[in-house]
From TrEMBL:
Family named by the database record: Belongs to the Cob(I)alamin adenosyltransferase family.
MF terms in GO: ATP binding; corrinoid adenosyltransferase activity
Protein's name in the database: Corrinoid adenosyltransferase MMAB
UniProt xrefs under NCBIfam families: PduO_Nterm
Subunit and interaction comment: Homotrimer.
Length: 199
């Protein structure tokens, strides 16, 4: 039958039904309501990775070399999710070893930001999300990233998430902003600026 693999084994179902009562599990095994801020942060990190995936596909069509960096960012966001899903209050040593988050990726983002910033014309006005499809998608990713950071900060303050996760998201939004401007410049697309409407 179509759902059987090459060895005749049935493929695993995508649905489990375990969350139908409105609860889900953290990596540490805790059952929490789906509205818990841990799951809100997890979902937003997933949304961010999806937005970056779209931006990456559009940028790839334009031949941008930074697409490899975006793939690396998506992999880092999986690690961000693992850390968020492992509340420090209930984590055992084995959990912490598997889901720790270091400062190294934060420093790498700062290097990338500096590299692209040096090539950009100075900002002289407030830029609206624009500059072609790649740039606009990167701006959208930046906005989602800011929301992910807002979701994570209370968890860091509560001692549930590594502070480096919030730092990473903060630098990532800066990186996505600079990259959006860089993509527009490389594609020769105009960045639209804010013009105050007349009263």
């Amino acid at each position: 039958s179509p759902e059987r693999g090459s060895r005749g084994a049935r493929a695993p179902r995508i649905y489990t039904g375990t969350g139908d009562a409105g609860f889900s599990s953290t990596f540490t095994g805790e059952r929490r309501p789906k509205g818990d801020r841990v799951f809100e942060a997890l979902g937003t990190a997933d949304e961010l990775s999806s937005a970056i995936g779209l931006a990456s596909e559009l940028s790839s069509e334009q031949g941008h070399a930074f697409v490899a960096q975006l793939h690396k960012v998506q992999c880092m966001l999986q690690d961000v999710g693992s850390n968020i899903a492992t509340p420090l209050s209930s984590a055992r040593e084995a959990h912490l070893k598997r889901t720790s988050f270091s400062e190294k990726p934060v420093l790498e983002l700062e290097q990338w930001i500096d590299r692209y910033s040096e090539q950009l014309p100075p900002l002289r006005a407030f830029i609206l999300p624009s500059g072609g499809k790649s740039s606009a998608a990167l701006h959208f990713s930046r906005a989602v990233c800011r929301r992910a950071e807002r979701c994570v900060v209370p968890l860091v303050q509560a001692g549930e998430v590594d502070p480096n996760v919030a730092k990473y998201l903060n630098r990532l939004s800066d990186y996505l902003f600079v990259l959006a401007r860089y993509a527009a410049m490389k594609e020769g697309k105009e960045e639209k600026i804010y013009i105050k409407s007349e009263p």
